[in-house]
């Protein structure tokens, strides 16, 4: 990009405005290095359709409710296990801190995108805290089995969302540098949401591994406990997406 800078000739004496204009010399100064191909791509994205908007709202609502639930499950487990199994405090606190970060992130997204929270939020809070306390009272193994069940369902749930976000959210955009219309690209907002969900999915799967390493499968009865909690999580997801 270049800019024309007007300068007065040397020894210019002010006279009338028209004389002054006539004497003005022009010179061209380059403001930027000549690297036109390195321009930052800027797009103006087209709107999402109604189905895409509704899906995104559901994603934010259910993920916020789910992370709230996870936060409260760990709160319940920590409340009990910090006394009964103090050696687990650091481990539980690490996982709990990650859930708090997940929860805060979706709280912010909920405000930015103006998505109403699940109407059953008090139920999710009380239910999750209850599950955390109960499994922790059953013992360390039951608490870890609970984590296995929850993270199995949540990991799968995040993967389902990512599959849809990757396949059904291509929109048209205008390249603001060239004016060209590009078909089927993803907006920065969508990319950022996908990145967030992938990061959280990986955290959840790490929690699952940690729980298995900490004797989750020794819980009695493991199968019944995990299947009941998985069923509860699936029902909660289905409900939080809608209510
Ligand atoms: Fe989480
Ligand atoms: Fe988790």
Automatic annotation (TrEMBL):
The residues listed in the UniProt record as binding Fe cation 1, with positions renumbered to this chain, are: 67, 99, 102, 204
> In which broad location class does this protein mainly occur, judging by the first location in its UniProt entry?
mitochondrion
Q: Which reaction does it catalyse?
A: a 5-methoxy-2-methyl-3-(all-trans-polyprenyl)benzene-1,4-diol + AH2 + O2 = a 3-demethylubiquinol + A + H2O
Quick check: keyword Transcription in the entry? Answer: no
CDD domains, sorted: DMQH (cd01042)
Xref: Pfam families:
COQ7
**Gene Ontology terms, MF aspect:** 3-demethoxyubiquinol 3-hydroxylase activity; metal ion binding; oxidoreductase activity, acting on paired donors, with incorporation or reduction of molecular oxygen, NAD(P)H as one donor, and incorporation of one atom of oxygen
Which keywords describe this protein according to UniProt?
A: Iron, Membrane, Metal-binding, Mitochondrion, Mitochondrion inner membrane, Monooxygenase, Oxidoreductase, Ubiquinone biosynthesis
What is the superkingdom listed in this entry's lineage? Answer: Eukaryota
Q: What is its EC number?
A: 1.14.99.60
Entry cofactor note text? Binds 2 iron ions per subunit.
This protein's GO cellular component annotations are: extrinsic component of mitochondrial inner membrane
Coiled-coil annotation: which residues?
none
Q: List locations, semicolon-separated.
A: Mitochondrion inner membrane
Q: Required co-factor?
A: Fe cation
Instruction: Provide the binding site for Fe cation 2.
Output: 99, 151, 204, 207
Q: Hey, which pathway is this one from?
A: Cofactor biosynthesis; ubiquinone biosynthesis
Cite a single GO BP annotation: ubiquinone biosynthetic process
Q: Which family does it belong to?
A: Belongs to the COQ7 family.
Kindly give the PANTHER family that the UniProt entry links to this protein: 5-DEMETHOXYUBIQUINONE HYDROXYLASE, MITOCHONDRIAL, COENZYME Q10 BIOSYNTHESIS PROTEIN 7
> Assembly state and interactors?
Component of a multi-subunit COQ enzyme complex, composed of at least COQ3, COQ4, COQ5, COQ6, COQ7 and COQ9.
Q: What does this protein do?
A: Catalyzes the hydroxylation of 2-polyprenyl-3-methyl-6-methoxy-1,4-benzoquinol (DMQH2) during ubiquinone biosynthesis. Has also a structural role in the COQ enzyme complex, stabilizing other COQ polypeptides.
Descriptive protein name: 5-demethoxyubiquinone hydroxylase, mitochondrial
Q: Which organism is it from?
A: Wickerhamomyces ciferrii (strain ATCC 14091 / BCRC 22168 / CBS 111 / JCM 3599 / NBRC 0793 / NRRL Y-1031 F-60-10) (Yeast)
Q: What is the lineage of its organism?
A: Eukaryota, Fungi, Dikarya, Ascomycota, Saccharomycotina
């Amino acid at each position: 990009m270049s800019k024309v800078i007007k300068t007065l000739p040397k020894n210019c004496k002010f006279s009338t405005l028209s004389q002054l204009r006539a004497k003005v010399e022009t010179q061209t100064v380059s403001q930027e290095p000549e690297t036109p191909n390195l321009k930052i791509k800027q797009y103006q994205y087209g709107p999402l359709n109604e189905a895409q908007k509704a899906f995104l709202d559901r994603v934010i609502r259910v993920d916020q409710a789910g992370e709230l639930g996870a936060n409260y499950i760990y709160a319940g487990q920590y409340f009990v296990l910090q006394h009964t199994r103090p050696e687990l405090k650091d481990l539980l606190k690490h996982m709990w801190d990650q859930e708090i970060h997940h929860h805060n992130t979706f709280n912010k997204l909920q405000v930015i995108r103006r998505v109403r929270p699940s109407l059953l939020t008090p139920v999710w809070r009380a239910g999750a805290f209850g599950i955390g306390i109960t499994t922790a009272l059953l013992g360390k193994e039951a608490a870890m089995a609970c984590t296995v069940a929850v993270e199995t369902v949540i990991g799968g749930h995040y993967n389902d969302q990512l599959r849809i976000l990757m396949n059904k959210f291509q929109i048209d955009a205008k390249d603001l540098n060239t004016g060209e219309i590009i078909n089927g690209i993803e907006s920065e907002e969508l990319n950022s949401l996908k990145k967030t969900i992938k990061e959280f999915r990986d955290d959840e799967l790490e929690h699952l591994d940690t729980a298995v390493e900490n004797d989750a499968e020794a819980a009695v009865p493991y199968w019944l406990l995990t299947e009941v909690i998985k069923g509860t999580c699936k029902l909660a997801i289905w409900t939080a997406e809608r209510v």
